[in-house]
Fold this protein.
Amino acid sequence: MANGTTVRMWRRSLFVLIMIVFFGFSLVCFRLFQLQVVNGEDLQKRAIEQQMADTKISAQRGTIYDCNMKPLAQSATVWTVVLEPAYLKTDEEKELVACGLSEILEIDKDKLLEKAKKKSYYIVIKRKVETDIKDKIIKFKNDNRISNGIRLIEDYKRYYPYGNFASAILGFTGTDSQGLSGLEAYYDKELTGEAGRLITAKNAIGTDMPFDYEQKIPSKDGNNLVLSIDEVIQHFIEKNLEEGIINHKVKNRAAAIMMNVNTGEIIGLSVKGDYNPNEPFVIADEETLREIESLPESERDVAKSVAWEKQWRNKAVSDTYYPGSVFKMITECMGIEENVISENDHLVNCTGSFVPYQGASCIHCHKRTGHGSLTAEEALLRSCNPGFIILGQKVGAEKFYQYYTAFGFSEKTGIDLPGEASDIFFSADGSMTQMDLAVASFGQNFSITPIQMLTAASAIANGGKLVKPHVVKQIIDANGNIVKSMETIVKRNVISEDTAKRVTQMLYKNVNTKEGSGKNGYVAGYRVCGKTGTSEKIGCSGADGKDYIASFCGFAPADNPQVAMLVYFDTPKGESYYGSAVAAPVFAKIMQDVLPYLGIERKYTEEEIAQLETTAPNILGKSIGEARNIVQSSELNPIILGEGEKVVSQIPEPSKSIRKGGTIVLYTDKISINEAVEVPNLTGLSMIEANKIIANSKLNISIKGASMSGGEVVSSSQSIPEGTLVKPGSVITVEFIQKDNIR
């Protein structure tokens, strides 16, 4: 019996043992299946992460060039400082490195010492270190014979060599070199390139292995952008726009855009006041900054965000505005194209106001006393609101909206800049009341962007084709190979070539005749076409209950238009807010610089030839009699100073520009050279008055602006301030503008 019990117990024990082994083996198999199959990929990834350290190597961001390959935005080499504490064997070495780097990098020594005590071969201490700091670190290593322990890894930082220049176009990048605004954001993918990797191994206790175990995957540099922007033209625009803001006390910035009318290439675009993209978070406007600093601390962050958004905003493409009388060129195109009116057809008997339909409110003309009887062309030249209300009625609401759409106002232009705004029309389906049509005919109560208005004006200039504007001409790779070229895109024909030519001729007369309202846009010899605009702002009120936008839009030359430009000042608070007085003179000054630079030929009228400037002859070393004869034969008047027998100096200098009939001062001894005269006040005068004062001051005058286009003009500025002491014969440039305030 005892023997049977023993056998049974043995069998039970064996069964239990087998079950234990079976279940244990099953559990192991299950666990192995779970680890290798179910969780295998994740565990493998975690193992690699534990064993390997993966560091990103920045790619060099592509350069942004102007059309002549001048760099406007580029990436310069900077350095990442890496500490390798595992190489630092003694406390003395760690103390030395921490102390040296603390002084060079201006980092707390104790924090560096704490990092220096870690068992690692790779700890980032500071990024984006400039070359001068890198050189100090290298000198520190050499002076202290430190071969390992500090590493310098090449990185890149974005620079904008011209500071504020073209900031509205270029935009800026963030701390990780990502595009945040402007072209930097729009073409971020093309500019960024592909980051590289630095893979380092870790040992069993988690310490980084030496660089012998590293694997480096190099980065791929980003592509470069070649813009249609011309740096020289851009400077002309920015200089004159900034001057206009100061002279007219503009409160809400200004913008100007210049476009090739045939290709859609934007050759200049500026928004002032702007900011420095090297320091985009510095509030550039000092008045705004003072206002923010005066706020309670709890309100400053919100105020800063608002200020940043305003200074980064590209007013030329992201803001909408009432175009005002500039839009009259579009309404004129509608009437001519639809054959409801011809240039010489009688259009209106302007009494100074007009009631568009029975029971409607009275709409005033800018000339409250009225223009009298006007043809369609004369209505444009005098910018007569009642005339254009009648013209709009002749076209009709349905056709008006069809042309509004055809000229591109109901859609974005598609310009390659971020944040382009859409228009705001009376209704989404284009339906208009009689009053809507009346005010829309002269550019009020609907909103468009400046780039839309310029694109539409360019369609008139180029014979009727609506072209897509663009800023980038080409994308090229790091080796200079062309990746992509931006072709001219013609969206559609909006008017006939005949209509375009006829309206162009009217816009030419508007600038170049005494009847025209755009005389302040006149540039001698260049046959400029254009139209002024003065529009009320939406929901704003100034001291007189209203704020305004002053603008001028035009193109040149009339016989073969090449470039168009819109100049736009938001809330001028100087002596005038009218487009004719504020925007048109700035337009003329920019064109005066740009057109000769583009090599466009001057074609003078007989009247212009009579007033042309000449160059001062070289009469140095000549006898007094010989010098007098040379000066007089050059249609200039000599003034001789001193007791000598020969000319030792002259003002203006040889080859300098001087107005025909002007004065050349001849100095015959060293004493006379020191003579000086005081510059008189030459502003607020007629041309006759200014010439008379100059003649009595032993000075010369150079006349610019509307002076040769006819009409009543007045001097608005002078190149050398009143009271300045200058040498006799010096040339003072005086700018003249049309005296009338025309919308």
